[in-house]
């Protein structure tokens, strides 16, 4: 399926159909480059929490995620202890998944450690595909790539968790490592 024309006359990727949180995310954020460690850690965390759930669920809980994870300040999260973990497990405003919460703390610690090298942003950007995909319909859209497999493998080597190749491909799309929009979508090429 190619881009669809919405009631507003604009061609978009088909998952961004009607008005609401998904279309807003598509139009304003998905595929746009983000900057800074906290932005990268936030997207990495949200993609991990999304695994097995709908993206709209995560977007609707995003304000609470930002609050409980201190706007994704890696040092603050890295300092979380057992009491913080218990507090998060009791907070119904977020997804209360033991493994995903622990992965967030683990990933914050790995992010802090990565500062001694190139840092999280530069590290992730180094996995940009040489030839970015340019799908014309959803059947051509990949759910993983050689680059997402390599990113997953290297993140795991550096102590990150919940960073499988499919999740990393979704992350690469979300943060604009390459343009994920279908050819014909009004956002294609707008960075």
TrEMBL record:
Domain of life of the native organism = Bacteria
SUPFAM superfamilies recorded for this chain?
DNA-glycosylase
Q: Which InterPro entries does UniProt cross-reference here? A: Adenine_glyco, DNA-3mA_glycosylase, DNA_glycosylase
Task: Write down the Pfam families for this protein, in alphabetical order.
Answer: Adenine_glyco
Q: What is this protein called?
A: DNA-3-methyladenine glycosylase I
């Amino acid at each position: 399926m190619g881009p669809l024309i919405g009631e507003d006359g604009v061609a978009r990727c088909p998952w961004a159909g009607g008005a609401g949180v998904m279309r807003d995310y598509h139009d304003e954020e998905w595929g746009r480059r983000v900057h800074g460690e906290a932005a990268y850690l936030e997207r990495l965390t949200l993609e991990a929490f999304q695994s097995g759930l709908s993206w709209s669920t995560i977007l609707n809980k995003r304000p609470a995620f930002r609050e409980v994870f201190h706007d994704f300040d890696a040092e603050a999260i890295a300092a979380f202890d057992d009491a913080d973990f218990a507090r998060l497990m009791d907070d119904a405003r977020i997804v209360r998944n033991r493994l995903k919460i622990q992965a967030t703390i683990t990933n914050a610690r790995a992010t802090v450690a990565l500062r001694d090298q190139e840092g999280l942003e530069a590290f992730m950007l180094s996995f940009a595909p040489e030839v970015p995909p340019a799908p014309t319909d959803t059947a051509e859209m990949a759910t993983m790539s050689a680059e997402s497999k390599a990113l997953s493998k290297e993140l795991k080597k550096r102590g990150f968790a919940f960073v499988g190749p499919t999740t990393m491909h979704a992350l690469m799309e979300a943060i604009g490592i390459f343009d994920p929009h279908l050819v014909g979508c009004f956002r294609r090429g707008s960075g």
